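Journal club prep — side note

Before the paper discussion, L.F. wants everyone to see what a predicted structure for a comparable chain looks like in token form. Sequence:
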Amino acid sequence: MINGMKSSFFNREDEQRRLQRFLANKSGGLAVVYGRRRCGKSTLIQHVAGSGDVYFLADQREALLQIEALAREAQRMIPGFAAARYPSWAALIETLEARAPVGFNLLLDEFPYLVQASPELPSLIQHYLDEPGTKKLSILLCGSSQRMMQGLVLDRSAPLYGRATEILRIEPLAAGWIREGLSVAGDAAIEAFAVWGGVPRYWELATPFRSLKGALHELVLSKNGVLHEEPDRLLEDEMRSGSQAKSLLSLIGMGCNRLSEIAGRMGKPAGSLTRPLANLIELGYVRREVPFGEDPKNSKRTLYRLKDPFLRFYVHFVQPQRSLLEMGIMDAAAETLQKEFSSYVGGHWEDLARQSVPFLGIGGLRWGLAARWWGVGTDGVPMEFDVVAESLDGQAVLIGEVKWTGERSSPEAVAADLMARVVRVPFLKGRKVVTALWMRSGKAASGIEVITPDQVLDCLR
């Protein structure tokens, strides 16, 4: 049951502390907050803003209208400020510096919209910051277009490169927070995370519904649902042309995980897709996967997978049925969801199991990052393991099995199968082997630890 979101604001303590410190500084400066849409950037900066700070949410109007609107906001703190007309951003910034009190904080949300209408604005801010002398203004820039924010601030050629004293990238929340966010636990929390991921706005939208199924029907499957066209909106923020990105996401989500497969399906040279894939990785929508023990930079066995849970859900369940859904026919999508949802969730459960490894202290040891492993066993037969990690001291190897579907399998049976395969592992090199199972329920079997959903969620927060 999804009972209600207690708060839309979780786990941003360090970000709050840094921004509050920046806003309390009376000598001026620049801070930057960026990240994908719906992760709570605006909520964060509104939360830390004081009553004397000026917060301005930009839109896509003409530059003079934006300047006029900002002047009206500034008038709350500077009497009569909006009485004058400002012909340019340079005139506005110059007047703010002259009339504002010391320690004046200007928070510009959706900054890329301002730049679209006034490309000169970053250079004007750069010029203001670089002028000698103490500044009255502290400027905070926030934006959802990660590509534009990086181009304006993070690239070496960017006008504002090196000027910011705080640069915060706001990521989706870790999986464990979804229990508080949607008042769910255990299996239900894993299922919810497999759809909504760690995006707080999705959690808010799902809150009024009494079940995950109801939320999916109304928000995603329905052609009138708020999230029915969400992937298009996400890519419009980031890509000059979204068609190639959509094709890449679609193919990867459908199981084309090798670069050669993707290139073949698109009819393009593999080398031409390296940069677009790197962009999607940087944006947090795709991830690279290599077998445990291989160098990600040099491995020739790289797989590409969708990283964002909502995009994975959309490509798997919505995209193949788009034509029918646009006609208001949801039966086929609902039937597919009913048949395949458990298997779909199992893939996310594997991801979360691997993420949990460094935090669990399995076998009394501390572990590094976990990965899958696939290859050939000592007997020459192909094999793979869901979870493999090395202890931090390098003396032990963790090998684990993850089960979601077929949940009635006993831990004893799963453990016996795992141990039978472990003896054929080619990369142990005489090191101690520790084994573990990640299952929906069950007690330790044959000395092998069994880790359940709530144990995983406890440490992923």
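L.F.'s comment for the group: The chain has three domains: 13-169, 177-347, 352-459. Keep this in mind when we get to the figures.
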